[in-house]
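Narrative progress, year one. The postdoctoral researcher (J.K.) led the effort to move from monomer predictions toward full complexes, under supervision of the PI. The following entry was the first complex the group processed end to end, covering 470 residues in total.
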Amino acid sequence: MPRVKSGSGPGRLLVVDDNKVNRLLLARGLEQQGHQVDLAENGRVALEMLRASSYDLVLLDLRMPEMDGYQVLGQLTGDVDLRDIPVIITSALDELDEVARCIEMGAEDYLTKPLNPVLLKARIGSSLEKKRLRDGQRELIRKFATSEVADELMAKGFSLGGRYVDATAMFSDIRSFTTIADSQSPADTIELLNTYYTLMFEAIGNHHGIVNQMVGDGLMAIFGAPLPQEDHCEQAVRAALEMIELIELFNCDQAAQGKTQIRIGIGIASGQVIAGYTGTLARATYTCVGNTVNLAARLENHTKLVGEPILIDEATQAGLGSAIRAEAQEPFQLKGFAQAVPIYSVPTGQEPG
Amino acid sequence: MSERLIDLPTYENLKGMMGEDFIGELLDAYFEDSPRLIAQLRQALADRDADSFRTAAHSFKSTSASFGALNLAAIARALEQAGKEGALDGIGPRLEELCAEYGQVELALKELRDAKG
């Protein structure tokens, strides 16, 4: 596994102890190791400081007036914004049974008082490194998921393992993009792509989908995973309608500036997919594979032939509420499928909701 | 005298770790906190507030141990244990023992601090 950049670099630490001597001792020891240290004399003050500012690590005493260490730990682990801050319990040697309870509650590690500077350095370094690794993972997830999904994933744990989920896959790309790219400057092409992606992310995110792949002018999105979503079929189709709507608005704008207009094709299919993180621990992406995904890709390709911008499979059509209209197309034997597949088009101009 | 009260290796180790200047600051905090903790212990005993008694004794134990006042820390630990068990009856004499020991420890620590310039 590739190592994340030095874990023993300085961090911003909060020392919580009701005893001034202990606070000074810890602060001094930590400052000597290059860390920036703030002090809190009880749990209530500590929580206020943690909410007002950002810290890499908390050193927490257990027995304090007003709000003790257990209460602080309980509040921290129950708070989405704070639960990733590692907590090291500082305790006396004869309190190890209590320390065990804290570790069960989510504390990262412990140190016994009086402090041993070598242990102090090792434990702080290791906790900071873990924190940085987690921050890195969170950042990675944020790049391709909404913040709700990222929070959910962080809460349930980050694992590279796969599982079967019921979801909807969507593929979209720009028609005749190569011709467009050849007919204008590289700068215009990149700007066009960036605007296109911004609009597509907006439409997909509005309907709780996540974009998990972008290749050239094409993208893949998933609805119903990693977070289960009951109406993922309908949400995907609504997202597609909104994507077309946004492209039309974009085209008006482009036309007014005498710039190239674009058209997109979207293929959607629903069913069981294998979902999970693929890649390595250092660079991973959430993705879905399986027949459903292949079908969505084929349908997207098929839009060129049919001349309809949105094509969906039978399972997606069956999952639509009465508010959205779909029209049966000629069944077609798509590449990689043994038999002709029922295909539906979704007329544009319907309210995406 | 001070060897009985203060474990010198512990004290010297702390001084080496923290630096001569800083140990003065640390002792000031200790001399400031300890009478407050003793007052809290007395009050808690009078109120039969075992939890408050335990917290104060705990705090006293850990700081005293840091400076090498091991006997004082042991008495504080016994008080903490009594608080934990809610057994405050008859603990009065041990609290007085702690006060007396602290008085001597304070003098010994001041002596150590002022021994070298």
